[in-house]
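User: Structure tokens for both sequences below?

Assistant:
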Amino acid sequence: MIRSKTTRLGRCGALALAALVAPTPGRTGEAVPTPYTVIGDFDGETKDDRAYDLSGMACRPADADGSRLCVVVNDENRGAQFARLGGTTLTPGAVAYDLGTAPARDIRGMRPAQSQCSGGNGKFDQLDGEAVAYAAPYFYVTGSHGCTRGKRKYKLSSMILTRLRPNADGTAATETVSTYRLFDALMAAAPVRDYVLRDLEFDWNALPPEGTPQPNGLNVEGLAVVGDRLYAGLRAPSLDGKAFLVSVPVEALFADGNAALSAEVTTIALEAGPDAGIRDLTILPDGRMLVLTGSSRNGLPVPSRLSLAALPSGTLTAVATLAPVRGESEKGKVIDGKAEAVVPLGPGQVLVLFDSLRNGAPHAYAVPIPEIDAPTPP
């Protein structure tokens, strides 16, 4: 039984790319970005493509040489990729895992059967990976658990959460377990369960009558593990200025067998502001949760912000607004990237990756993260 409760709440290529990606002059009070160098290219939709859709990243603590093993996910791929973060460089590595072209027989839990996606069923292909978390000794990677944005299709491949354990040198996964049970948790989480597998937004080629509310369909874009609980951060729905975390015990998600989830599911409301949703979650070394928020749908004028979230209340403490980063899209158009992944670098500094820019255009930001028990500035 599920119990639910809601609380308020190549170096040459890299150097050439650096000339195309630059900070956009920020408004007063915005944290200003500093570029990192990507050595080579992350895998795009196929291995020969360059990646323009990086959407999640998490890293484990530093190894003896000072570098950190990371897992990066691209929402156009079937899995995830290892990377090394060291100094001011990020180097793509081996494939961490691949879902394949059909669901594996050993995926735990029950295959989701319900779909209200207006585009019908799509192929089992892309994970639509949106977030990565790390909690020793595992990395966790999740699909969006939502309808596809463009064609509004239901894809079983995006309804999967995977836990993987890397080998000692970070070149392969020694253990990989996948589960459907995060979907069960979302279906049990009031009030967001009413938005599961709704379209994310209108079909702009067939708009409904003026005044019709956006479908505001649920999709996962943040992931974190704190203690024995996993937190899924939702980009949508955004309801009355609130964004949402869905929390569930980790081990219940990955329990042996094909039974449905049996655990307490908690929904935490964050006062993120109008049209704001969660774009990523990360855990600081001291155990506090850092939340990256931005627009809940494409095209909304919502800035990217970092805040500390108190658990379990969900109270947000603003940390910084991020100045945007501008560069060339895959089609050669100069755009502002969409901040979609955040990784702590050290005291008062984070690394941010941007969707729609090549290799995520990683940039570091100096941000005034208050120390524990430090007084909050007026």
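Moving on to the next sequence.
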Amino acid sequence: MDYGVSTLARLLGSAGMDVEQGARVLRGMLSPWGGERIGERPHWHSDVCADGSPIEFSAAFSRHCREVRVLVEALPDRLTTPAAQQSAAELTRILVQDFGADGDRLAKIADLFLPDEEPTGFAMMHAVVFTPTGRPEFKVYLNPEADRSMSAAERTHEALDRLGFGKSWTAIADYADRGFDLDRIVYVSLDLADGPESRVKVYFRHYAVTPEYLDTRMEISAQHERGFLGEFCRKVTGITGEVRDQPLVSNLTFAAAGGHLPVSATLYVPLWVHAESDLTVRDRISAVMADLGLPDSGYRALLDHVARRPLPDGRGIHTYASARVQHGLPRVTTYWSSELYDRYPPARYQRG
């Protein structure tokens, strides 16, 4: 609790956002488990960060707006998925009752992702987005492999159907044209809000693929501007061609306003396994932002508030980076591990 709230306060203060509001929200998201002391090893190895940390900070930068985000996994008091489900359900209740989140759409699909019989893996992750104006926005990340009664594809298809996006499955199947073994569905994200702009996102982990190939597949979104992602990936990883050590991730975003086709598509490039230190990653991201006409001063200032050690002394702070250009407007997002347990986390999510 102390670590998370103090870090967020620095980030929001630096970005000119409401510190008091942010602190109040994050205290709610970290209760009651955030009162425990941080140990040398994770009590529950969270899916949020590569080192098992249950809290991740991120920031999005564009020419006209900046966002600060926090992703958490509510830690269970027992090392079981049913206990994690209880913690996740309690956090959802807090966000709905205390902070105005809308849980109606989640209620339509909760039984799919929080099954009663033999659940496996993580239960749910929760995120909050802060902007210079407006109320905090909340969303959840759900586990398509919540149990063995359905495949990830079957569970995702059923969830989309219940949410009124059944016809979107054609776009998803076309996007994952190599099959769901190589283009694996790994998360379903849902805005805890209601309205035509409320989003459903389907996330994929891609094996044995180049960013240029995904760039062409992302043309399924009308807003995607082709030809950018290969160079972006090369600049932030230092690698040309296929990214092997850690799979690339992408998502397709759907909203009622966009019909059955995705309103956007985003590529997430893993960073921590492709540089000797976070200093190298910082310089690469700064160079990308300069190429896109985005000042990097805000990014560097926020990074300084996240880092708890000199950037050359590890490579675990930067987890992913994403970028897209829509209608000529660039947007870069960087994701930062709290690095509570390991500053040199290994690669993960290998095939198998």
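User: Anything stand out in the second?

Assistant: The chain is about 30% helix and 20% strand.
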